[in-house]
TrEMBL record, chain A:
Domain F-box as annotated: residue spans: 16-46
InterPro entries listed in its UniProt record: F-box_dom, F-box_Sdz-33, Zygotic_Embryogenesis-Asso
Pfam families attached to this UniProt entry: F-box, FBA_2
Domain of life (superkingdom): Eukaryota
Protein's name in the database: Uncharacterized protein
N-terminal signal peptide: none
Domain Sdz-33 F-box: 177-236
TrEMBL record, chain B:
Function description: Probable essential component of SCF (SKP1-CUL1-F-box protein) E3 ubiquitin-protein ligase complexes, which mediate the ubiquitination and subsequent proteasomal degradation of target proteins. Regulates cell proliferation during embryonic and larval development.
Pathway, per record: Protein modification; protein ubiquitination
Phylogenetic placement of the source organism: Eukaryota, Metazoa, Ecdysozoa, Nematoda, Chromadorea
Pfam families reported in the protein's UniProt record: Skp1, Skp1_POZ
Domain SKP1 component dimerisation: 127-170
SUPFAM superfamilies cross-referenced by the UniProt entry: POZ domain (SSF54695), Skp1 dimerisation domain-like (SSF81382)
GO biological process, one term: ubiquitin-dependent protein catabolic process
Name by which UniProt lists this protein: Skp1-related protein
Record bears the keyword DNA-binding: no
Chain intervals with Low complexity compositional bias: 8-25, 178-188
Gene transcribed to yield this protein: Cnig_chr_III.g8742
Length: 302, 188
């Protein structure tokens, strides 16, 4: 027997919304613009969706037991919520509209995580690019092939602020790490200890992310020393770098890294100051080298 | 322990047919009050049961009725259907003097009456029953798709909402114009 829900007193209706589970609340929000706004203005918090590319499908996760699969028809979504599968459609709604709706009711502007977690075809990445809006972090899992990893980072990197790669796509391929280093990101993390990333001075000089972190990097003290000297002289424009973090198997000698360079000791860090006021904090520890770049503006905030 | 009389439309209710609970009679005699809904059927309810309703409890406290006065002046709730008021009275009696558990299986489950029940309970300010009713309203759409929810809760489409909004604006405009014309007439 139907009831006219909007005739119920507002406070009671809000309490009814409060009693609904998240899947039902999302279904309700899709009924009309009015219901969407009611859900947005309610006190219920809906977690933002995370996206996962698994083979040639995109899975949107809200909660462990609440997942939407984007179907091939590009207009409907398949809901998995514990006890079976439902197909949802909304007249005039594409899958991109569904994603925008989910972000809207969770009061988010971007998808926090886009994960490429299994083998998918490289052409499918173009479809992903059309459907998925801005993301915070792109994760490429360890089981992706080198070709897929490189294609995913280059195609989807533009959608994201951060990229984390859990494999080494440059091992035994014609590709070079510089293809990733030139990307304009907030954070690039090459995160695998399964193989080593060989770095040279030229690689560090082209790094275009704010933060670069490489697990298992191989670089000599001499190259790092040359990098620091170039930075001191200021004859290379370091546009964006805020931090370089290199984890290494081989222990480094800090005296070789800082050879011929004036510095001050600050706690366990070495502070290098340039003529224009920029500062660089160097940490050479067992298995790790960290460069933190501080502009005069950063220093005034501190 | 409550009693119900059918078809009494006069102000003074007839004697209830069922006697109040006597097995566990309290030491101090319990006072009773009378309520009726749209159908004028008078329900005799103990003061203890009526304490669930903040509205009636407030009325009783303010009036200071004797039993005779209460019998002669049943509280009229003309905006509540008789069967809904019966449900409310039954619930109040069942939960007299004890708190409602979070999941109360003894509470009314009639979905077809749920909407009216929510309105009545909201009016009578029975917080615990209202909480349960709202949960029941939410349960009506559990596991349903947007289309099914739209049907169950009679949710208008965007087009219907827009049309209603336009209509309301039009009506408001007409009313404003009417008021202006009336004010101009008065000024003349």
């Amino acid at each position: 027997m139907p009831i006219r829900i909007f005739s119920i007193p507002a406070a009671d209706f809000q309490y009814a919304l409060h009693c609904m589970d998240i899947g039902d609340l999302i279904a309700f929000s899709l009924c009309s613009n009015r219901t969407k706004n009611l859900v947005k203005s309610s006190s219920r918090k809906i977690d933002p969706i995370s996206a996962q590319i698994d083979e040639n499908t995109i899975l949107l996760k809200i909660e462990p037991n609440l997942q939407f699969l984007l179907r091939e028809d590009s207009f409907s979504i398949e809901l998995h919520r514990g006890n079976g599968i439902e197909i949802w459609r909304k007249p005039g709604f594409t899958q991109r509209d569904f994603i925008a709706h989910f972000l809207s009711i969770s009061r988010s502007s971007i998808i926090p995580e886009l994960r490429v977690s299994n083998v998918c075809s490289i052409p499918y990445l173009d479809i992903v690019k059309k459907i998925i809006p801005k993301c915070d972090t792109l994760y490429i899992s360890h089981n992706c092939s080198s070709e897929l990893t490189i294609a995913a980072v280059l195609k989807l990197g533009a959608l994201t602020r951060r990229v984390r790669v859990d494999n080494d796509p440059f091992n035994n391929t014609n590709h070079h790490i510089s293809e990733f280093l030139t990307l304009n990101l907030d954070y690039l993390h090459l995160s695998t200890f399964a193989s080593r990333f060989n770095l040279e001075l030229s690689d560090l000089l082209i790094a275009n992310s704010n933060n670069l972190s490489v697990d298992c990097a191989t670089i000599t003290e001499r190259e790092l020393n040359r990098f620091l000297k170039l930075w001191i002289k200021g004859n290379h424009t370091f546009y964006r770098l805020k931090m370089i973090e290199l984890f290494q198997w081989e222990p480094m000698k800090s005296e070789d890294v800082l050879k011929g360079i004036k510095f001050q000791i600050m706690d366990h860090k070495r502070r290098l100051t340039r003529a224009d006021g920029e500062e660089l904090l160097v940490t050479v520890g067992p298995g790790v080298v960290v460069f933190e770049f501080l502009s005069p503006q950063d220093l005034s905030i501190q | 322990m409550s009693s119900t009389e059918q078809g009494t439309s006069s102000a003074a209710p007839a004697e209830p047919t069922t006697a109040p609970e006597s097995a566990a009679a309290p030491e101090v005699p319990e006072s009773f009050y009378y309520v009726h809904g749209k159908d004028k059927v008078v329900h005799k309810v103990s003061a203890g049961a009526l304490q669930h309703s903040a509205l009636i409890h407030g009325m009783i406290s303010n009036l200071g009725y004797t039993e005779e006065q209460a019998k002669a002046n049943p509280f009229p709730f003309e905006n509540i259907d008789g069967d809904i008021l019966q449900m409310v009275v039954d619930w109040c009696n069942q939960h007299k003097g004890k708190p409602t558990p979070p999941e109360d299986t003894n509470l009314p489950k009639q979905k077809e009456k749920l909407f009216d029940l929510v309105l009545a309970v909201n009016y009578l300010e029975i917080k615990e029953l209202l909480t349960y009713c709202c949960k029941q309203v939410a349960m009506m759409v559990k596991g349903k798709s947007p289309e099914e929810i739209r049907e169950i809760w009679m949710i208008p489409t965007d087009a219907e909402d827009e049309a209603a909004e336009k209509e309301a604006k039009k009506r408001a405009g007409k009313e404003a114009a009417g008021e202006t014309a009336a004010a101009a007439g008065d000024a003349k």
